[in-house]
Amino acid sequence: MFAEVYQIVQRIPIGKVATYGQIVRILGTRDSRRVGHALHANKDRKVPCHRVVFADGSLAPGYAFGGAKIQRLKLESEGVKFKGNKVNLERCRWSR
DNA sequence: CTTATGACTATGA
DNA sequence: TTCATAGCCATAA
């Protein structure tokens, strides 16, 4: 279940981000919520959930490990470029 | 066991 | 472009 999600999330290299849809696609399902639930169940203790963003590049408002703004800062620190209040998926989208 | 809610995404207005 | 609704699956009650 979530193990697959954790594995994929940990597989994301520094400076890159993956969308829920991307992970879900790898899992072989269409449900994006299960990924979000997986991260929520695990929070940010073992998996860098801050690298997981919405399909449009935005973050999870109010449910991040400490705030979407914090998440944004963390991603920036890893080298992820931001497009306004969203991540520049065109540049930092994790491809396989 | 059934109902309701949720770190989502795609489609329609 | 932004807001609302439907669909998919798992967890909580």
Write the CATH homologous superfamily: Winged helix-like DNA-binding domain superfamily/Winged helix DNA-binding domain
Oligomer: single chain
Which radius of gyration do the C-alpha atoms yield?
12 Å
The CATH topology is given as: Arc Repressor Mutant, subunit A
Q: What features would you describe in this structure?
A:
There is one protein chain. The chain has a single domain, classed as Arc Repressor Mutant, subunit A (Orthogonal Bundle). The mean pLDDT is 91. The radius of gyration is 12 Å and the shape is globular. The strands form two sheets. It has a two-stranded parallel sheet with strand order 1-2. It contains five helices and four strands, in the order αβααβαββα. It is mainly alpha-helical and 96 residues long. Helix 1 crosses helix 2 and helix 1 packs across helix 3. Helices cover 45% and strands 8% of the residues. The protein starts with a helix and ends with a helix. The structure holds a DNA duplex (13 and 13 nucleotides).
Question: Secondary-structure blueprint of this entry?
Answer:
Blueprint: H1 2-11, E1 18-19, H2 20-27, H3 33-42, E2 52-53, H4 68-78, E3 82-83, E4 86-87, H5 89-92
Helix pairs in contact: 1-2, 1-3
The protein binds a DNA duplex (13 and 13 nucleotides) through helix 2, helix 3 and strand 2.
Short description:
This protein is mainly alpha-helical. Helices cover 45% and strands 8% of the residues.
